[in-house]
Amino acid sequence: MTRVFDLNVILVMGITDIDDKIIHRSQELQVSFREITEYYEQEFFTDMDRLRVWRPSLAPRVTEHVPHIIAFTQGILDRGLAYVAADG
């Protein structure tokens, strides 16, 4: 879009840097979850570079926004648009 139409494009790519699989893997390897996620994030961006894919303008990580995610989810629950399952 930028090259063809001369538009200012902002690409935002969310990075999931914490989830159950990452936590379990970090416990299994006895390393911090950040060591695992930083390694794979770097590999991902290296692959993007090799493929000549433009990197995103912003790449926020889930761990940077946990309070916002909790508040958003609580709002959905408070409005009755979601429910808590027995298994969490």
Automatic annotation (TrEMBL):
GO MF terms held by the record: ATP binding; cysteine-tRNA ligase activity
Record-linked Gene3D superfamilies: HUPs
Recorded superkingdom: Eukaryota
Family the UniProt entry places it in: Belongs to the class-I aminoacyl-tRNA synthetase family.
Pfam families (alphabetical): tRNA-synt_1e
Cellular component GO terms held in the UniProt record: cytoplasm
Keywords, in A-Z order: ATP-binding, Ligase, Nucleotide-binding
InterPro entries for the chain: Cys-tRNA/MSH_ligase, Rossmann-like_a/b/a_fold, tRNA-synt_1_cat_dom
Domain tRNA synthetases class I catalytic: 4-88
Protein's name according to its UniProt entry: Putative cysteine--tRNA ligase, mitochondrial
GO biological process, one term: cysteinyl-tRNA aminoacylation
